[in-house]
Amino acid sequence: MIDTHIRSLLPSWLGGRGHETFRPRGTSSRVSRLAAEYDADVDAALQRLWPKARIYHDREFTRDRADFLLVVRGRGVMIETKVKSDPGVFRGSTLPPLLDRLQRDGRRLVVLVNQGDPAPARDLVSAKLGDRGRIVVWSGPHHDTDLRQAVEALLQQTTRHA
Predict the structure, then answer these.
(1) How many other CB atoms are found less than 10 A from the CB of residue 30?
(2) How does pLDDT run along the chain (162 residues), one tens digit per residue?
(3) Which one of 58, 108, 111, 158 is most buried, by most CB atoms within 10 A?
(4) All residues at 6 or more sequence positions from 102 whose CB lies less than 8 Å from its CB, including other chains
(5) Cα-flanking dihedrals φ and ψ of residue 47, to 5°?
């Protein structure tokens, strides 16, 4: 039996490209595993919904940069993923450093949370970014319409806010 850590290294040893892995996040292995799976699912959804878009991944853990930059028709939208291990309320307590930076930069942001009630975090995003921020509960292809609507609404904004 091969250890899963070693298995993840094998494609690079064999010269193959292998599946891109996302940075683990959180403090427990369960949350880190859920976050990595969620990021991979979000990446697949972005590719599925905007097949001609450029998608950039932030490979370094930092609280003040979004996980993805989606560039569609020459316009960018930052995508931040948040994983909750329970279906409770999502307050967005980890969002302020990112929101502060995006508020200064004038960038647009969609926060994707896998489950829960995002109302308190929605208020936080709205207070910092106004109409340049959205929060969407996205847990799979059945929520693709909500994701598409949020991103497209931000892409249609004609001015970059100061």
Answers:
(1) 11
(2) 333 343 444 444 334 333 344 444 444 567 688 888 999 999 999 999 999 999 999 877 778 899 999 999 999 999 999 999 888 999 999 999 999 999 998 899 999 999 999 999 999 999 999 999 999 999 999 999 999 999 999 999 865 544
(3) 111
(4) 66, 78, 108, 109, 128, 129, 132, 133
(5) -65, -40
